[in-house]
Amino acid sequence: MNAFANQLPIGLSIGAVLLLIALGLTFTFGQMGVINMAHGEFIMAGAYTAYMLQDWAGRQAVLVALPVAFVVAGLMGLVLERALIRRFYGRPLDTLLLTWGVSLVLQQAARDMFGAPNVQVRAPSWLVGGAEWFGVRIPHARMFIFVLAMVCVAGIWFYLARTKQGRRMQAVMQNRDLAACSGIATSRVDQRTFFIGSGLAGIAGVALTLIGPVGPALGTYYIVDAFLVVVAGGLGRLQGAVIAAFVLGLVNSYAEFWSDASLAKVVVFAVIIGFLQLRPQGLFVLRSRKLT
Amino acid sequence: MTGSTPAEPQSATNGHTDSADGGQALLAIRGLSVVFDGFRAIDGIDLTVREGELRFLIGPNGAGKTTLVDVVTGLTRPTGGSVVFAGREIVGRREHQIVRLGIGRTFQTAVVFEELTVEENVDLAASFRMRLPALLRRRKGRSDKVASVLDRAGLLDLAGQRAGVLSHGQRQWLEIAMLLAQEPRLLLLDEPVAGMSRAERERTGELLADVARDRTVLVIEHDMEFVRTYASTVTVLHEGRVLTEGDMAHVQADPQVREVYLGRSRDTRAAEPAAVGAGPNPEGAA
Amino acid sequence: MNTPGLLGRRLKSGRWRGPAGFLAVALLVLAVAPATLSPFRLELLAKYLCFAIAALGIGLAWGKGGMLTLGQGVFFGLGGYAMAMHLKLAEAGPGELPDFMVWSGVEELPLLWEPFRQPWFAVLMVVVLPGTVAALLGLLVFGRRVRGAYFAILTQALAAAFVIWLVGEQGLTGGTNGLTNFSSFFGLDLASDADRRVLYFAVAAVLGLMYLGFRHLVASRYGRLLVAVRDGEDRVRFLGYDPAVVKTVAFTLSAISAGIAGALFVPVVGIISPALLGVVPSLELVFAVAVGGRYVLAGAVLGAVLLNYAKTTFSENFADGWLYLQGALFIAVMAYAPKGVVGLVGQIRDFAATRRLGRQPAGDSSRPTRGPGDDEPARPAEAVDVEKEAVA
User: Is the pTM of this model over 0.80?
Assistant: First the structure.
């Protein structure tokens, strides 16, 4: 029983990481139906931002990096959207492949700028070590990530529900044409969406520096998982992403616990396929009424 | 199958039906309701279409006509009620299964496969009962069925053209041709003459009347002149319910129908002066 | 039938282009190349042809069927490992263990390996393993109307999971190193140049036969149905077909072709490892087809050969630059030449027409208004691939 309970916090913490990574994706995916394969590289950019700030901010780099990475990754996303993505709206598969090309370029650029080997970002002293919770040792870093994820979700929820911009974003997400007819500048909303979605990736990247090394291929480790969260959670729904992320995190940790680590991913995949049998549209869908 | 059995007495309709009518209920809809997120698109419909009928379904926009067809063809799942086709309940079956039972439809905006030629479109529609191994073989020439359908729909000359280059009217005929090629027992057409020229409409009407001689046809239409020319039995829908049913004279005389149409849009009345209620003093007609 | 008349009409309509082109390429591949290329270069060409076999499947599933499958590495690997397992056992001898197992101190042959001693079983598995996985996945996923980008992501996830499993099962699969050091292939001595030539011809023959087979399939009724499903899956339902079955067939065939490609890759290149199979290599397979021209089978083959040739050449000379070039090429192709190299001719022609006439042509470059019998279709509308339909 103890071993079983041990997996719970691990699963939740994996879920928190997945949530951070997937949060931005639910934005861009849900908003514009854009599969941004370069999302992983925005995460990587966030992580490297923290790395670069180390020289200047020392051990507090991680905290300082959070807003900076948000802006850096956000700007990268904005540039991508303006330069390429907006030309291919309505061609989701082509956008997928297109952004993968961008991802390749960014990865190589990272290799050229920072070198191929992994680098370390030193965590602030107060995040080192862990605490005992119900007989399970949980690293402070992972607790921080959990809190960070919750803060981000709350922030996004507030933005969407309570601000004018956010509500416009929801309108475009639910019915683009109607929103445009209602006078909403959809292209500006798109830009904002991409900026925020990519910015969130940057934050996720900073968080990842707390639990592992940083390298040019950082994005590729997590991008597939992130997309799975979006697939399982339903197109662009915040609640869906949250629930899917934690459920997948738990499935991941329990699968690793019961089988061995190498089979865990296969188990997760099988679980998702199984889940899609019951709910192919994901956890939550936007129900629109048919008017014709 | 048609014309041999006498018409069953119909309590709902007091209009006489087509002389070619077979009498057996081919499609029986009972207590149908469809609710989209609180919006009642269909609010309790009972409808019977007998074998061999040519029935028209009219009503203002939003009345639920297309939704009704969507339910019958399996595109939309109703929230309640039943749809029985040739004795079988079809609610819950998948679209292609319903087609295989013998129901075919066209869409408001004709959807054809633009990359394939006209002939390939029709041939595909005609071949759906083939088993997979047969499908793997190359098509050898033009089958008789395809040839006759192309001829009937007036598309022989265009047979080799990519469907993408067809004009609007031609596309709609191609859709009808594909429907014919399926050889369904029940044909459901959704605004088949929308956007057609007068000549095209006449041609389509003749084709439909011809088809209705040995099949059962249900047509959704807005074009009142077309309805008046070719309809024998008309069902009027309004706000998800059947308003009235009967032959054209009965329907035109019904004050409720006039109110629904006239009250809805005075402009359409101006555009179609003979739409509904034309003729001498409609007051007092029941 | 007036034969000269028929022939004359065929010549005029351009129908001769197909068979003549095929013969020309066959001549190049079967006669010119072996005569002019060094054994090393010929071996490289054999490798490219293996990728071309996999590309055929992608051309069918993606180009004609609209299914962006980003996990072909899985099927490539299943076929490759099936063949590799047999070759290792064949070379070890009856009752013996493969060399890598001996070196890692494995005492007993894993049960999974034993049946692969039989050549017929291994060959069967090359087709059955990828085929079954694909058929199962296809029915489960397409059956629930999950398609487009969602399907693509699922195939990626499968590739990622597969690689992790391969790496983890060191004793079973050779782990990160994979399986290598093959000495013979069904009687052919892989150290002998002469035997390697025979292998080259075998690969070329398989490619040729599969190409013809797939072409026939594409021209058949099923092929037209597949295109219809790509362009209007929902409409096809109302014609009485189940699109899930149609798509699963094409997807399974693509998996089988990838499996065969993997199986041939093993003796040609001499290794099969997880690094060749994951998310990135799977994407590269698709990329190759995109570059060559996904809407035409010949384009897929061309793309595979061209891209891998470019990769080899550039990696030799500008290793770092290759990734930039690849990425940039990918962006350029997807953005400006979605019909690939094969489609460029049409695009240039349309562009020239625009300049000449001083106005927009009747259609854009994605809708060539050439006569019937032309098998270069326009870009289909990728309508709402993202939205999965609700069940109810």
Answer: yes
